[in-house]
Amino acid sequence: MEEQFILKRATYHLWTFAISKFISNFGAQVYAFTVSFYILQLTGSATNFAVNLLCNVVPRIIVSPFAGYMADRFDRKKIVILSHMITALSIIALICMVLVFGLSLSILYSATAIFSITSTFSGLAFTSSITGLIDQHRIQKATAINQMVISIAAIASPAIGGILYGFVILPVLLLMYLTAVIIALILESTMNFTLFSTANSEANASPQESLWKNMIEGWNYVKGRPLIMAIISIALIVNFLVGAFQVGYSYVMIENLNMPAEKFGIVESFFAIGMLLMAAYLSFRKEFRFPLIVAKRGILSLGIIIGIFTIPLLINMNSFVIFTYYALLMFLSGSTIIIINTPVQVMMQKLIHDSYKGRVFSIVETGAQALIPLGTIAFGILYDILPAHWIMVSSGCLLIIAVLYLARPAVIRKAHPEWQIKHSA
Questions:
Q1: Residue-by-residue DSSP string for 214-263
Q2: What is the pLDDT of residues 111-120, one digit of tens each?
C-alpha cells in the first residue's frame, strides 16, 4: 500500500511539475517578449534592447555557482518557494513603481536582472530535485515533458505577448505575470521534494563548509568522474557550435536567399514544432537503454544538418523547393535537439550523486550561458568575413569530430558496459 501511495505521489509530482514549469515559463517569456517591445517603444534604440538581454544573461552567469551551492546545502523546496516569493514581491514593487514613476529603463533593467537571478535559483533547485520528486523509471518521461513544456511556451508566448502588447498596458500585463507566479508557487508548495531521496535534507544536517571550498569540491567531483566530464564537455561544445547554426540559418535564408519575412517565420516555426513533437513522443516511449549512444547519433545527425544547410547556395533551386527544404531541415534540427538533450539529461540525473547535483548543474548552466552569447558574437563576426557555406560546413565537421572523440568507444563502454557485452556476444 505504501509503495502504491508513493507512486501515486510521484505521478502527482510529474504533472504538477509540468503545469508549474509551463505556467512560470510561459509567464516569464511573455513578460520578456513584451518588455523588449516596451523598451524599443520607449527609446527606439537597439542598444538599450541589447542591454536588457545582458541584464538577463549576465546575472545567470554570475549567480549560477552560488545557486548550485545553495541547492546542495539547503532545502531545495524552500529555495524554489522563496525564489518565487521574491519574484512575486518584485512584480508588485515593479507595478507600484511603474504606476508612480512611469516607465523607466533603470526600473525595467533592474526587474529583468532580479527575475533572472530568482529563476536561476529556482531552476537549479528544481532540476536538482527531479530524482527526489519522481521515480527512476519515469525520469525520461519527466525530462521529455519538461522539454515539451518549454517548446509550447516558446511557440505560444510570442503570439500571446504580441496580442497583449497591442491591447494591454504594462501594469495589467505584470498582474497577469504575478498571477502565474502565485499559481506556480501554490502548486510547488504541495510537492514533496525528497519523496525518493533524503540526500538534500541530510546535507543540511552536516557541518557547513565555506562557499568557496564547497564549490571547489563540486568541481573536483566532476573532474574525478571522466564519464560526467565527457558528457559536460559534449554539452558545452554543442552549445558553442550550435551558435553557427543559430546565427547562420537566419543569415542564409534572409540575407543570401532573400526569403520573404512571412515564409521565414513559417520555416522558423518548424524548429519549435519538431521539438514539441519529439518531446511528446519521448514522454510516452520507454526509456532509452543506451542514452549516450542515442545522444551521440543525435549530435552526428545535427552536424550533418548544419553541414548541408547551405546546399541551396550552391545548387539552383526554385523558391518552393527552398522553402520545403528549409522547413524540413528546421523540423529535423528541432527534433534532433530533443533527441540529444533528453538522454543526456536523464544520464546526468542518474549518474550524479544527489548531494552534488546543484553544483554540477550550475557548472553546465554557467558554461552554457557564457558560451551562447560568445558563440553568437564569434559566428556573427565570421559570417561578415567568410562565405556562409564555409562556416556551416566547418562547424558541422567540428561537431562530428568532437563527438566522435568525446563519445569514443572507450567512453561508451564505460557508460554502458552491457552494450559491450551485447555486441561481443
A1: HHHHHHHHHHT-HHHHHHHHHHHHHHHHHHHHHHHHHIIIIIIT---HHH
A2: 888 988 998 8
